[in-house]
Amino acid sequence: MAAVPAIAIRDIRKKYASGFEALAGIDLDVAPGEIFALLGPNGAGKTTLISIICGIVTASSGSVSANGYDTIRDYRMARKQIGLVPQELNIDSFETVWNTTCFSRGLFGKSPDPVYIEQLLRDLSLWEKRDNKLITLSGGMKRRVMIAKALSHQPRILFLDEPTAGVDVELRRDMWRMVRKLQSTGVTIILTTHYIEEAEEMADRIGVINNGRIILVEDKSKLMQKLGKTQLLLKIQHPLSILPAELSAWDLTLSDDGTELTYTYDSQADGTGIPTLIRELDSIGVEVRGLQTKQSSLEDIFVNLVRSSS
């Protein structure tokens, strides 16, 4: 029997009174315990989709369930499953760190658990600040409090909407350490980020959204294999003015200054063709003085996908 998806989204649409269609039929399953990165340019629909799942925005049509609970029919149970760290700082400036975190736990009907709250604050390097009023904290510390609030009721699904935008390296490192710890306990994490290297580092699967549509969902490793390119950079001893006709059959580009050839090839293929290319260059008198390989990053793939779908 197949496991119930942590998040099941079916034909979600959101159209505003102005006629703008923010989401145009989203279908997506997120598996229990996975880290799913949702990538897309500004205005693609990422935050709208997360807000619908979390019950903050009402969809025009379609359905969403969280761990089997419909977010409309079983709103209270569905909402208990979810923790949300939004982009915006939304905190009571004159409350203490400890009281804010405990209050958030109580909002979800959870009984007090000072032992859990203490460990949570320690994990987020907030324990020494527990009696501080939020107005006295730095921006990075306030962001940590937002994370503590989202985790206060021990949700099984955690949404991180641009959680590390504008924060310091230390907080980013602490957050990813906590994300891995949460995943190890079976928590499902859905992440949106502008730092694509974070998605490349952390995610199990990648989804790309653009113009309100999911244009791709793929295992990260498979995505890198299928859409990533491997390039060989060949430094030329004597600059070329044009690409020789004898090389027209090869996927080669010549740099503007004529000192470098770039050969793009499929690293997963049976043969790369590199030895044959080197011999071909030698036979026409093109002397190579250096070689360097370059692999596409997730950012390269993302940019190309968005460009092709726009």
UniProtKB/TrEMBL annotation:
The keyword ATP-binding applies. Coiled coil: none annotated. This is ABC transporter ATP-binding protein. Keywords: ATP-binding, Nucleotide-binding, Transport. One of its GO terms (molecular function) is ATP binding. It comes from Gluconobacter wancherniae NBRC 103581. SMART domains: AAA. It comes from the Bacteria. InterPro entries: AAA+_ATPase, ABC_transporter-like_ATP-bd, ABC_transporter-like_CS, ABC_transporter_ATP-binding, P-loop_NTPase. Pfam families: ABC_tran. Residues 7-236 form the ABC transporter domain.
